[in-house]
Structures are given as C-alpha cells and as structure tokens.
Design brief:
Layout lengths: L4 H20 L2 E2 L4 E8 L5 E4 L4 E3 L8 E6 L4 H16 L4 E6 L5 H10 L7 E3 L4 H5 L7 E5 L5 E6 L7 H8 L3
Length: about 180
C-alpha cells in the first residue's frame, strides 16, 4: 500500500502542531483547568462577606486559595458546589471563598446553600464585579487558584469535580 505524499505532509504538520502546543502552551490537566507557566500577580483582591464587610486578600500569603465564582441560577455551579464543599471539609488549609456574582441577596444565597447541604463554605459577594474584570472572566462557574505567595497559578473555566482524586493530587503539588 502506497501512502500519498499529501497524507505524509498533513501527518507531519499535525505532529508538529501537537508538540509545539505541548512545549509553548500552558499546561492543561483537564479540559477546564488552565495552569499558567508562570504565576500571575494579582494587583487587588477585594470583595465583601455575608455581612457586607470588606474582605481584602490583596497581600494574603501562606495558604492555597480557591476563589469560586457562582450564581444561584447557574446549573453547573449547582452541580459542582457540593464537591467544593467536600474539598473545604477535607482540606481546611485550603482557603475556599465562594463568591456570588449576583446582586447581594442573603435569603436567595442561603437557600441555595441549604438546598445543596453546603456546610463548610461561607457566602461572599462581588456586587461591583471588580473581580470579574481583574480575572477577565467569561462565564460561570469560574475558579481562580492562588498559590501560597498570593499569585494566580491556575484558572478553572466551567464545572469540575473538586473532590476528584486527580484534582486533589494536582492541588497537593502546591500545598
């Protein structure tokens, strides 16, 4: 059987593209997780807690931090939130901030947590959408992973299972 010259060329191009992406692109551990080659500085990291007090993590260092952005109407947010709650329970050294991106509504957000039996997370708000701009977010859920030095090392775009072994093993590299 003779292989055509054009088939060989297309195959070679595909192989080159594949290896180029592996060398020059950011590492993807799943279709939703983008790990940055170099951690990214965060200029300002402020939002409000359930009682509308300012939370400022701008210079916070020492722990892995997960900022999870969600909404009560978001079906994928609803699906992933129990696994995020489980992660917070199993790994209390990982600081998890569940930040609602709607107009602050205590009753609605409490009902959301109650319906899902969320017991290990607190509710936070970003009513002015400052963090949406800071992290250049395009949809929900989105989670930002921050290393012990206060820099963004990865971004999760869309829903994942935070209690999945592969994700936990990935996080352990940064603990």
């Amino acid at each position: 059987m003779k292989i055509s010259k054009s088939f060989k060329i297309y195959t070679l191009i595909a192989v080159i593209i594949f290896f180029t992406q592996q060398v020059f692109a950011e590492v993807n551990y799943s279709k939703n997780i983008v790990v940055h080659k170099e951690p990214i500085d965060i200029k300002e990291l402020k939002f409000i807690d359930f009682d509308f007090n300012e939370v400022d993590l701008t210079n916070k260092k020492g722990n892995i931090v997960i900022l999870n952005f969600w909404a009560t109407w978001c079906a994928p947010c609803k699906k992933e939130m129990p696994s995020l709650d489980k992660l917070a329970q199993l790994y209390p050294d990982i600081m998890v901030y569940a930040i609602n991106l709607e107009k602050p509504n205590k009753e609605k957000t409490l009902e959301f947590f109650k319906d899902l039996n969320i017991a290990n997370l607190k509710i936070y708000f970003d009513p002015s959408f400052n963090l949406v701009k800071v992290f250049n977010m395009r949809g929900m859920p989105t989670s930002i992973l921050i290393d012990k030095n206060g820099k963004e090392f990865a971004k999760i775009i869309g829903e994942i299972d935070f209690s999945e072994d592969s994700f936990i093993n990935f996080l352990k590299k940064y603990l």
